[in-house]
Amino acid sequence: MRPPDPDRAAAAQTFYSRWAGVYDRLARRAPGIRRLRRAAVAALDPAPGDTVVDVGCGTGANLPYLRERVGPEGTVVGVDFAPGAVGRARTLVARAGWTNVSVCRAGATRLPLADADAVLATFLVGMLPDPAAAVEEWLVGLAPSRIALLDLARSHRPPGRPLNPLFGVVVAATAPPGTRDHHDDSPARVLDRRVAAAHRTLLDRCSSTDHETRAGGFAYLSAGGR
């Protein structure tokens, strides 16, 4: 796995912490986002009593849907590297009074857990320098029976393809400062490659898989069982 650049990691943490409030509103209120999150949790299909890890949980937008599926007897663990996002997620948990949901600060490739029944990552792998290796690490290190990924990338379908230039502008505008300086390509193309690599790893490593695109082809949802 490619080692993380400490300076870039620190800059990203600062960026996502500073803008945690904006990302929180987008994560919960963007058009169609709740439907996508519910679809991801449904594809993951955790059972009551399961332990589920939400990698890159951000401000906690997935946590209510995951807890709903595992029930009060299950466990949900959110993990994120940005202090501002973790703080908001913890506030959500405290206000809801969920004793079986916790949020910890850690990197996506340094998860503070030994195992899990299911792993979910939404809108995360495009931020990782080596997303395929990260997915492999989750599968080996946590040995989940189910895993699901939900990500945005450019559309290859006719309904969405004409909007790819606009999507590229949004990706560039929401990326941490200096992102373009570290790549020889546009942020949207880098995102495409990373999302494809992560989802391909999931589909190759799992025995039973499902893959679909939504939102005009911009949303990629893959799930697999082992």
Keywords summarizing the entry:
single chain, 226 residues, alpha/beta, Rossmann fold, 7-stranded mixed beta sheet, globular
Radius of gyration, in Å, reads 16 Å
Q: Strand-and-helix sequence, N→C?
A: HHHEHEHEEHEHHEE
How would you describe the shape?
globular
CATH class value:
Alpha Beta
Look at the structure and name the CATH superfamily.
Vaccinia Virus protein VP39
DSSP helix count? 8
Classify the beta-strand content into a percent band. Answer: 15-25%
Strand order of the largest sheet: 3-2-1-4-5-7-6
Domain Methyltransferase: 52-142
Protein name: Class I SAM-dependent methyltransferase
Organism: Haloplanus ruber
Keywords: Methyltransferase, Transferase
How does this model look, in words?
This protein has 226 residues and is an alpha/beta fold. The protein has one domain: Rossmann fold (3-Layer(aba) Sandwich). It contains eight helices and seven strands, in the order αααβαβαββαβααββ. It has helices at residues 6-18, 20-29, 33-44, 63-70, 83-96, 131-142, 164-174, 187-205, and strands at 51-55, 75-80, 101-105, 118-122, 146-152, 208-214, 219-225. The chain has a seven-stranded mixed beta sheet with strand order 3-2-1-4-5-7-6, sandwiched between helices. The chain is globular, with a radius of gyration of 16 Å. 41% of the residues are buried. InterPro entries: Methyltransf_25, SAM-dependent_MTases_sf. This is Class I SAM-dependent methyltransferase. Its EC number is 2.1.1.-.
Topology summary:
Elements: H1 6-18, H2 20-29, H3 33-44, E1 51-55, H4 63-70, E2 75-80, H5 83-96, E3 101-105, E4 118-122, H6 131-142, E5 146-152, H7 164-174, H8 187-205, E6 208-214, E7 219-225
EC number: 2.1.1.-
Domain Methyltransferase: 52-142
Protein name: Class I SAM-dependent methyltransferase
